[in-house]
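Incident review: delayed structure delivery

Summary: a single-chain prediction request sat in the queue longer than the usual turnaround. Root cause was a stuck worker, restarted by the on-call engineer. No data loss occurred. The affected request and its eventual output are reproduced below so the record is complete for anyone auditing the incident later.

Affected input:
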Amino acid sequence: MAFLENNRLILNNIMNDFKRKVCSKIDLANEGLNRYRIFNPFRFEDGDHIVILLKKENDNWLLTDEGHTFMHLSYEIDIKDLQKGTRKDIVENSLSNFSVKNREGELILSIQDELFGDSLFSFVQAILKISDVTYLTRERIRSAFYEDFKDYFLQSVKEKERLAFEWHDPEKDPQGNYKVDCRINSMPKPLFVFALQNDDQVRDATITLHQFEKWGLSFRTLAIFEDQEEINRRVLARFSDVAEKQFSSLSGNKERISQFLEYSLH
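Output delivered after worker restart:
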Protein backbone atom coordinates (compact mmCIF):
# COMPACT_ATOMS: atom_id res chain seq x y z
CA MET A 1 0.00 0.00 0.00
CA ALA A 2 2.80 2.37 0.89
CA PHE A 3 4.40 1.72 -2.53
CA LEU A 4 1.14 2.38 -4.36
CA GLU A 5 0.50 5.52 -2.38
CA ASN A 6 4.01 6.77 -3.10
CA ASN A 7 3.62 5.97 -6.79
CA ARG A 8 0.30 7.85 -6.89
CA LEU A 9 1.96 10.84 -5.26
CA ILE A 10 4.77 10.84 -7.81
CA LEU A 11 2.33 10.69 -10.72
CA ASN A 12 0.21 13.43 -9.21
CA ASN A 13 3.29 15.66 -8.94
CA ILE A 14 4.24 14.86 -12.54
CA MET A 15 0.78 15.71 -13.84
CA ASN A 16 0.68 18.94 -11.84
CA ASP A 17 4.03 19.91 -13.38
CA PHE A 18 2.65 19.11 -16.84
CA LYS A 19 -0.38 21.31 -16.21
CA ARG A 20 1.68 24.15 -14.75
CA LYS A 21 4.35 24.24 -17.46
CA VAL A 22 2.39 23.18 -20.56
CA CYS A 23 -1.40 23.25 -20.42
CA SER A 24 -4.20 22.72 -17.91
CA LYS A 25 -5.92 20.28 -20.31
CA ILE A 26 -3.44 17.47 -19.65
CA ASP A 27 -4.33 14.06 -18.25
CA LEU A 28 -2.57 10.73 -17.71
CA ALA A 29 -3.97 7.26 -18.35
CA ASN A 30 -2.22 4.10 -17.21
CA GLU A 31 -1.51 1.68 -20.08
CA GLY A 32 0.71 -0.83 -18.32
CA LEU A 33 3.64 -1.05 -15.94
CA ASN A 34 5.35 2.37 -15.79
CA ARG A 35 3.62 3.41 -19.00
CA TYR A 36 1.14 6.31 -19.29
CA ARG A 37 -0.59 7.96 -22.21
CA ILE A 38 -0.57 11.75 -22.02
CA PHE A 39 -3.89 13.11 -23.24
CA ASN A 40 -3.35 16.60 -24.59
CA PRO A 41 -5.17 19.19 -26.74
CA PHE A 42 -2.43 19.58 -29.35
CA ARG A 43 -3.21 18.60 -32.93
CA PHE A 44 -1.63 18.23 -36.34
CA GLU A 45 -2.81 20.49 -39.16
CA ASP A 46 -5.45 17.94 -40.23
CA GLY A 47 -7.01 17.87 -36.75
CA ASP A 48 -5.55 14.58 -35.46
CA HIS A 49 -4.14 14.70 -31.93
CA ILE A 50 -0.41 14.24 -31.47
CA VAL A 51 0.50 11.08 -29.54
CA ILE A 52 2.74 11.26 -26.48
CA LEU A 53 3.48 8.64 -23.85
CA LEU A 54 5.41 8.79 -20.59
CA LYS A 55 7.24 5.61 -19.70
CA LYS A 56 10.21 4.26 -17.80
CA GLU A 57 13.21 2.65 -19.47
CA ASN A 58 16.17 1.49 -17.40
CA ASP A 59 14.95 3.43 -14.35
CA ASN A 60 14.71 6.65 -16.37
CA TRP A 61 11.53 8.44 -17.40
CA LEU A 62 11.21 9.46 -21.03
CA LEU A 63 8.64 10.89 -23.41
CA THR A 64 7.94 9.05 -26.66
CA ASP A 65 5.61 9.26 -29.62
CA GLU A 66 6.22 5.55 -30.36
CA GLY A 67 6.67 6.38 -34.04
CA HIS A 68 3.28 8.05 -34.47
CA THR A 69 4.55 11.42 -35.77
CA PHE A 70 6.40 10.03 -38.79
CA MET A 71 3.62 7.51 -39.41
CA HIS A 72 1.12 10.37 -39.49
CA LEU A 73 3.29 12.40 -41.87
CA SER A 74 3.63 9.37 -44.15
CA TYR A 75 -0.06 9.70 -45.02
CA GLU A 76 0.83 12.81 -47.04
CA ILE A 77 4.58 12.50 -47.67
CA ASP A 78 6.80 9.61 -48.76
CA ILE A 79 8.82 8.94 -45.61
CA LYS A 80 12.02 8.77 -47.69
CA ASP A 81 11.43 12.38 -48.72
CA LEU A 82 11.82 13.44 -45.08
CA GLN A 83 15.45 12.36 -45.29
CA LYS A 84 16.54 14.87 -47.91
CA GLY A 85 16.30 18.49 -48.97
CA THR A 86 14.11 21.09 -47.30
CA ARG A 87 12.07 18.55 -45.35
CA LYS A 88 15.19 16.97 -43.86
CA ASP A 89 16.38 20.40 -42.69
CA ILE A 90 13.05 21.09 -40.97
CA VAL A 91 13.08 17.73 -39.17
CA GLU A 92 16.71 17.91 -38.08
CA ASN A 93 16.46 21.52 -36.88
CA SER A 94 13.31 20.72 -34.91
CA LEU A 95 14.94 17.78 -33.17
CA SER A 96 18.14 19.68 -32.43
CA ASN A 97 16.42 22.80 -31.12
CA PHE A 98 14.43 20.83 -28.54
CA SER A 99 16.97 18.08 -27.72
CA VAL A 100 14.69 15.33 -29.05
CA LYS A 101 16.20 12.16 -30.53
CA ASN A 102 15.04 10.09 -33.48
CA ARG A 103 15.37 6.44 -32.48
CA GLU A 104 14.73 4.63 -35.75
CA GLY A 105 11.54 6.59 -36.40
CA GLU A 106 10.49 6.93 -32.77
CA LEU A 107 10.85 10.38 -31.25
CA ILE A 108 12.08 10.31 -27.65
CA LEU A 109 13.15 12.81 -25.00
CA SER A 110 14.85 11.62 -21.83
CA ILE A 111 13.69 13.58 -18.78
CA GLN A 112 16.59 15.02 -16.81
CA ASP A 113 16.57 16.40 -13.26
CA GLU A 114 12.82 15.65 -12.93
CA LEU A 115 11.96 18.52 -15.29
CA PHE A 116 8.78 16.81 -16.46
CA GLY A 117 6.83 19.92 -17.44
CA ASP A 118 9.72 21.56 -19.27
CA SER A 119 10.45 18.31 -21.10
CA LEU A 120 6.84 17.88 -22.21
CA PHE A 121 6.76 21.48 -23.46
CA SER A 122 9.90 20.86 -25.55
CA PHE A 123 8.56 17.55 -26.86
CA VAL A 124 5.27 19.09 -27.99
CA GLN A 125 7.10 21.96 -29.69
CA ALA A 126 9.41 19.55 -31.53
CA ILE A 127 6.50 17.51 -32.89
CA LEU A 128 4.57 20.60 -33.99
CA LYS A 129 7.66 22.06 -35.69
CA ILE A 130 8.31 18.77 -37.50
CA SER A 131 4.71 18.79 -38.73
CA ASP A 132 5.54 22.06 -40.53
CA VAL A 133 6.66 19.90 -43.46
CA THR A 134 2.99 19.45 -44.34
CA TYR A 135 2.27 23.15 -44.80
CA LEU A 136 5.40 24.77 -46.11
CA THR A 137 5.02 28.11 -47.86
CA ARG A 138 4.24 27.86 -51.57
CA GLU A 139 7.81 28.81 -52.48
CA ARG A 140 9.30 26.18 -50.21
CA ILE A 141 6.81 23.58 -51.40
CA ARG A 142 7.94 24.32 -54.94
CA SER A 143 11.53 23.94 -53.80
CA ALA A 144 10.77 20.60 -52.12
CA PHE A 145 8.82 19.30 -55.14
CA TYR A 146 11.54 20.38 -57.55
CA GLU A 147 14.20 18.77 -55.35
CA ASP A 148 12.23 15.51 -55.44
CA PHE A 149 11.82 15.83 -59.21
CA LYS A 150 15.51 16.56 -59.78
CA ASP A 151 16.66 13.81 -57.42
CA TYR A 152 14.42 11.30 -59.19
CA PHE A 153 15.91 12.05 -62.62
CA LEU A 154 19.48 12.04 -61.31
CA GLN A 155 18.81 8.55 -60.00
CA SER A 156 16.86 7.32 -63.04
CA VAL A 157 19.16 8.45 -65.87
CA LYS A 158 22.52 6.69 -65.66
CA GLU A 159 24.36 9.04 -68.03
CA LYS A 160 24.15 12.27 -66.03
CA GLU A 161 25.67 14.26 -68.89
CA ARG A 162 22.42 13.75 -70.80
CA LEU A 163 20.56 15.89 -68.27
CA ALA A 164 20.30 19.67 -68.41
CA PHE A 165 18.15 21.23 -65.69
CA GLU A 166 16.60 24.69 -66.20
CA TRP A 167 17.47 24.44 -69.90
CA HIS A 168 16.77 27.11 -72.50
CA ASP A 169 17.81 27.40 -76.13
CA PRO A 170 21.12 29.33 -76.05
CA GLU A 171 20.71 30.65 -79.62
CA LYS A 172 17.01 31.49 -79.92
CA ASP A 173 16.47 32.38 -76.26
CA PRO A 174 19.74 33.65 -74.70
CA GLN A 175 17.79 35.49 -71.95
CA GLY A 176 16.14 32.26 -70.77
CA ASN A 177 12.54 33.42 -71.16
CA TYR A 178 11.35 29.96 -72.24
CA LYS A 179 12.75 27.36 -69.88
CA VAL A 180 12.41 23.61 -69.56
CA ASP A 181 12.80 22.07 -66.11
CA CYS A 182 14.90 19.23 -67.52
CA ARG A 183 16.15 18.47 -71.02
CA ILE A 184 17.30 14.91 -71.76
CA ASN A 185 19.48 14.62 -74.86
CA SER A 186 21.32 11.99 -76.93
CA MET A 187 18.22 10.75 -78.78
CA PRO A 188 16.96 11.74 -82.25
CA LYS A 189 14.53 14.07 -80.47
CA PRO A 190 15.43 15.45 -77.03
CA LEU A 191 12.88 14.98 -74.24
CA PHE A 192 11.68 18.20 -72.59
CA VAL A 193 10.43 17.48 -69.08
CA PHE A 194 8.28 19.90 -67.07
CA ALA A 195 7.77 19.75 -63.29
CA LEU A 196 4.38 21.40 -62.74
CA GLN A 197 2.78 22.43 -59.48
CA ASN A 198 0.24 25.18 -60.12
CA ASP A 199 -1.82 26.94 -62.80
CA ASP A 200 0.82 29.61 -63.48
CA GLN A 201 3.51 27.02 -64.17
CA VAL A 202 1.18 25.08 -66.47
CA ARG A 203 0.36 28.29 -68.39
CA ASP A 204 4.07 29.11 -68.71
CA ALA A 205 4.80 25.57 -69.96
CA THR A 206 2.00 25.91 -72.53
CA ILE A 207 3.43 29.20 -73.82
CA THR A 208 6.93 27.71 -73.90
CA LEU A 209 5.81 24.73 -75.99
CA HIS A 210 3.95 26.98 -78.42
CA GLN A 211 7.10 29.08 -78.81
CA PHE A 212 9.23 25.99 -79.42
CA GLU A 213 6.79 24.95 -82.16
CA LYS A 214 7.10 28.40 -83.79
CA TRP A 215 10.88 28.07 -83.75
CA GLY A 216 10.57 24.67 -85.44
CA LEU A 217 12.38 22.77 -82.69
CA SER A 218 12.21 18.99 -82.82
CA PHE A 219 11.42 17.47 -79.42
CA ARG A 220 9.20 15.26 -77.30
CA THR A 221 7.53 16.32 -74.06
CA LEU A 222 6.91 14.84 -70.64
CA ALA A 223 4.97 16.63 -67.89
CA ILE A 224 5.00 15.55 -64.24
CA PHE A 225 2.58 17.25 -61.86
CA GLU A 226 2.83 17.53 -58.13
CA ASP A 227 -0.95 17.02 -58.06
CA GLN A 228 -2.77 17.31 -61.36
CA GLU A 229 -6.15 17.47 -59.61
CA GLU A 230 -5.19 20.91 -58.27
CA ILE A 231 -4.87 22.36 -61.79
CA ASN A 232 -7.73 24.36 -63.32
CA ARG A 233 -9.49 22.25 -65.96
CA ARG A 234 -9.28 24.90 -68.70
CA VAL A 235 -5.61 25.54 -68.03
CA LEU A 236 -4.93 21.81 -68.12
CA ALA A 237 -6.95 21.37 -71.34
CA ARG A 238 -4.88 24.01 -73.18
CA PHE A 239 -1.67 22.43 -71.97
CA SER A 240 -2.84 18.96 -73.04
CA ASP A 241 -3.24 20.25 -76.61
CA VAL A 242 0.52 20.78 -76.89
CA ALA A 243 1.94 18.27 -74.38
CA GLU A 244 2.65 14.69 -75.28
CA LYS A 245 2.93 12.55 -72.11
CA GLN A 246 1.65 13.49 -68.65
CA PHE A 247 1.74 11.93 -65.19
CA SER A 248 -0.65 13.20 -62.53
CA SER A 249 1.97 13.04 -59.75
CA LEU A 250 5.57 12.08 -59.13
CA SER A 251 5.21 10.14 -55.89
CA GLY A 252 2.48 7.82 -57.16
CA ASN A 253 3.92 7.15 -60.63
CA LYS A 254 7.65 6.62 -60.24
CA GLU A 255 7.52 3.07 -61.62
CA ARG A 256 5.44 4.15 -64.63
CA ILE A 257 7.71 7.11 -65.28
CA SER A 258 10.74 4.80 -65.14
CA GLN A 259 9.11 2.52 -67.72
CA PHE A 260 8.38 5.52 -69.95
CA LEU A 261 11.99 6.73 -69.67
CA GLU A 262 13.38 3.27 -70.40
CA TYR A 263 11.32 3.16 -73.58
CA SER A 264 12.00 6.76 -74.61
CA LEU A 265 15.72 7.31 -73.95
CA HIS A 266 17.00 5.37 -76.92
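Verification: The helical segments are 2-21, 68-73, 85-97, 116-130, 138-156, 199-215, 233-242, 254-264.
Action items: add queue-age alerting; document worker restart procedure.
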